[in-house]
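pipeline stage [seq->struct] | target=Kinase-like domain-containing protein | organism=Gigaspora rosea | residues=229
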Amino acid sequence: MIRKWTCGNKYVDCCIKEFQLRTSKYENIIEWIPFDKLSITDKIGEGGFGCVYFATWSDGIRKIEKTDDYYYVRSREPSSAVALKTLSNSSLKEFKNHMKCMLVGSKLKIYGLTQNTETNEYMMVFQYANSGNLYKFLRSNFRGLNWKTKLKLLLDISEDLLRIHDTGYIHADFHSGNILQHKGLNENMKSYISDMGLSKKSNESDSEGCIYGVIPYVAPEVYQVKSLH
């Protein structure tokens, strides 16, 4: 666990430390990231529960490198591209949901938390997807995709959804706008499930009795159940 740090909020400190203690790999350790280490350049998304920004992290992402002597050393990737998402409330629910899923193999990398020094909003720092979401990606590239690529994207999404279900959670806002696309150095496209602010345990009831989500993707039975109350 990283020592000698604090964000000034005991609740947030405890939340970060909890997941630090549950992480076994150096490259998956999350941390409190001072806001002055992040340089925001663009707003890249906005939803009902927060805004997403593109930023450069000066300290950089943790990684394991192989040396010429065939040793493995801990290092960082300086000036890393990352995404920041404002968290809608102080409970850090979305951050916790993502972390619990990442611990069992969910692919979207979470790097830590920060706080906007101007607005005092807490923000989740996570992996930047350079090809946007699946909805926009398919609108621009569908005709050029072969079946191998389509099946690979479906496999990525299915595996990620399985990891979420393995934790006992349901996504509750699952649609193409919440599936991120990233093209790697080898030109392979990868898919990641994001936006778990509405996620909940499968046995957890909706105490507020409200319907959330994007209307075209809400299951018909949800409306039917609500209309009976």
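stage status: PASS
auto-comment: The mean pLDDT is 88. The chain has two domains: 10-127, 134-219.
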